[in-house]
């Protein structure tokens, strides 16, 4: 065994394989699946995008996920430290730590808008609690069995997010509460808290999502929903393909949803114990994450089409459509509360991971005296969390409608064709998902395929056949870098010019 593999990993490990998978799934499953996937699918026209998304998960996401877990476990320490150690043990330069720093910048930027969207979810939690409480106040406890938002018209229900967007102060308060909770958890270290929470809540979340999907397939336009998601429209597809944007969107969504290219899975790989098989864990995480996205699509689009909502409505899709589903459901009030609480939790397990990456890197190396490390972790979480909150306020203001907030008319990178007309929140979303994460994944694949030696990778990954290892290596060496690289250059630089 090489020295690098055992000694650098003094941290507590996840209590077992199931716990690691749940926590990794918890970090991967979040607003990316529930809010972002339907939104990107809606804007790119559905089927063709979904097809490409699945191809990207299989041939790019899965190998890069294996690579990141491998780097994390073998390297030990934060993403930057892990890569530094691995490079050193291979006799290569420390320049590759750039991958860690890039990931840190990406995760930090994602946190600044993720927490704003999570604030929207929190608003919907309170809204649905208020609605049920009101119904009970009026009609007694029997109101529990009635659908959600009974007193409202359908139009009112599907414009609740629109309402929130006219209230900047409320939006900022929700965003602030969410950030504070995230800081408070990361401050305590991720082991006890995240693992327990993920173990309890993730299974409930899955059951709830399934129940909701069944209901929306029954009450909504199931045929239109299926057709939209799974029937590629090749005409639309051809048009989109000519500028490569649909490919970039699919790659970006795959990276965002699996939390790849962001140093996150490198950071979590550190906590994976030596007995666990990386390929199996990676498969389970990718499968669960992709299932949640597709199921969320099947919960949302039938309602969107049945109610005649606009499917290209951006981030608002989930918020405009699902309350209508609860409106048609017995016990809808209870379901609505449960669903939005679960969504909030899914967002929280992801935002914890987002903050954790940065704090772990800022924490420095694992060799620091533990007492000092705890204090540094607390300070790091607070300072980084507060800066994210500050930028988040600007993000929130960029979404406001009805009143001028400066940020809602400001298009920071208007001079770059790819980012033309985007306000801050949408800009940071596009910049991270479609540029920074793919770039991080591109570099990670090269690092794992070319810099890490075959023998080290083979030992660490421990595939059950040499052939599978060869396929993995080939994907990392050639397929991922070439495909991601070409699409990035074409869709982001050449086509927009
Ligand atoms: N994968 C998370 C989601 O889908 C978002 C995320 C991205 C989390 C990158 C961590 C790192 O919601």
Brief overview:
This protein is mostly helical and 497 residues long. The protein has 21 helices and no strands. It is 74% helix and 0% strand.
Tell me about the biggest sheet? Answer: none
Small molecules held by this entry = phenylalanine
Q: How many strand units? A: 0
Number of domains: 1
Per the principal axes of the C-alpha atoms, what is the gross shape? globular
CATH class: Mainly Alpha
In CATH, the architecture is Up-down Bundle
Question: Might you state the CATH topology name?
Answer: Amino acid/polyamine transporter I
How much strand?
Answer: under 5%
- Helix content bin: over 70%
**Which parts are unreliable, with pLDDT below 50 for 5 consecutive residues or more?**
1-11
Radius of gyration, CA atoms, in whole angstroms: 22 Å
Task: Please report the distance between the alpha carbons of the first and last residues.
Answer: 51 Å
Class derived from helix and strand content: mainly alpha
Overall pLDDT, averaged? Answer: 89
CATH superfamily membership:
Amino acid/polyamine transporter I
Q: Can you write the helix and strand succession as a string?
A: HHHHHHHHHHHHHHHHHHHHH
Oligomer: single chain
Keywords: Membrane, Transmembrane, Transmembrane helix, Transport
Pfam family, one: SNF
Main location: membrane
Membrane topology: Multi-pass membrane protein
Plain-language structure description:
Its main location: membrane. InterPro entries: Na/ntran_symport (IPR000175), SNS_sf (IPR037272), YocR/YhdH-like (IPR047218). This is Sodium-dependent transporter. With 497 residues, the chain is mostly helical. It has one domain (3-494): Amino acid/polyamine transporter I (Up-down Bundle), CATH 1.20.1740.10. 74% of the residues lie in helices and 0% in strands. Helix 13 (245-257) crosses helix 19 (424-451). The longest helix has 42 residues, at 98-139. The radius of gyration is 22 Å and the shape is globular. The relative contact order is 0.19. Bound molecules: phenylalanine (PHE). Residues 27-28, 30-33, 107, 110, 256-257, 259, 262, 264, 350, 353-354 line the site of phenylalanine (PHE).
